[in-house]
Amino acid sequence: MIEEGGKRGKTMAEKRQLFMEMRAQNFDVIRLSTYRTACKLRFVQKRCNLHLVDVWNMIEAFRDNGLNTLDHNTEINVSRLETIISSIYYQLNKRLPTTHQISVEQSISLLLNFMVAAYDSEGHGKLTVFSVKAMLATMCGGKIVDKLRYVFSQISDSNGMMTFSKFDQFLREVLKLPTAVFEGPSFGYTEHSLRTCFPQQKKITLNMFLDALMADPPPQCLVWLPLMHRLANVENVFHPVECSYCRSESMMGFRYRCQQCHNYQLCQDCFWRGHASGPHSNQHQMKEHSSWKSPAKKLSHAITESPRTLCFQSNQRDPWTWHTLCKYPRPIAYPSTSCLTELPQTPRGGGCTCDFSGSHVNEHSLQVRRRSHVAYAISRTPKDGSVSPYIQLRMGLLSFYGNNWPTETARDEEGYR
């Protein structure tokens, strides 16, 4: 009796282990249900090591275990489910290097208990084949488009058209995942779930299916699914930007920039928790950034675009136009940019007697002057990465002249400064 009670207690502890660890992450403080749900499911995915199993390896595991030959409504018991999960993790360890091996027994226990809690809440001890396929194909690693292609293959008929009843069944199964992490009130299955994905009852092909589920924004009931994949893609993205609330010198993951407050940026932890300071408000529109572009890259883009842009936007009434500032013609023709042919062929305010293409101009000194102009432009770049029109103009001139940048004496003679 004592031994049976101890085993029963150990089993209950194993069933609750994943949920206790998830609760310790304090995801419930995230104010937006979409991010909260995606973070919880991403935690389950990583804790069960499902992120290491690609969707194609998962499909192969289905085939090896004979699930492709079974009807979707066929029920399998927990012992067979454990065999399927075991084969997935043992095959995974064979593909991983010896230094990155996972604990197979622990992964099997965590995933098995989570699947039973999510899909066998009534305790029958059985799950349908379609439930197993839908859950594992959704929670494994890989690209979302590959997962949706596999899902479509399971819910389409022989003519390649989606069967609405099967898609409704898929929604019932996949929306049990948010319910399992206590987000059922926000993303649980309802009678209107199918209508939110496809309002009009018409023939749905694969491309239409992908367009609908990968739209921006996606269907409301599945909005957490692409976000979970975006979370996986930005976990190691580094932003060398200071958070305007917590004053952290850098960010990892998502970066959020206010569209109303100047240079107001938040890390993902502060944004998810609704933190705000100064004139910023949670009602302001925020733009989500999943990558960081350095000021040097922005300057490079400005160098490429500024000559063309300045030519097309030239205004004779404006003293700061391209024609006014460019007093020196470029010695080498630029056939790819037609607007440069409109530049005057002789300097304004008198001709320049300096031959910039002559051999008396030392090549090394030209390179030194070019590097000094680049360094000066980068030093004048603000931390937020914005590039002033003056810097764009300076770098545009530098790109326009190349190594034929006028000497200091020539620029002084023409009043360039």
TrEMBL record:
One of its GO terms (cellular component) is synapse. Keywords: Cell membrane, Coiled coil, Cytoplasm, Membrane, Metal-binding, Phosphoprotein, Synapse, Zinc, Zinc-finger. One of its GO terms (molecular function) is zinc ion binding. One of its GO terms (biological process) is synaptic signaling. PROSITE patterns: ZF_ZZ_1, ZF_ZZ_2. Gene3D superfamilies: 3.30.60.90, EF-hand. Residues 238-294 form the ZZ-type domain. The keyword Transcription regulation does not apply. Its main location: membrane. It is found in: Cell membrane; Cytoplasm; Synapse. Belongs to the dystrophin family. Dystrobrevin subfamily. This is ZZ-type domain-containing protein.
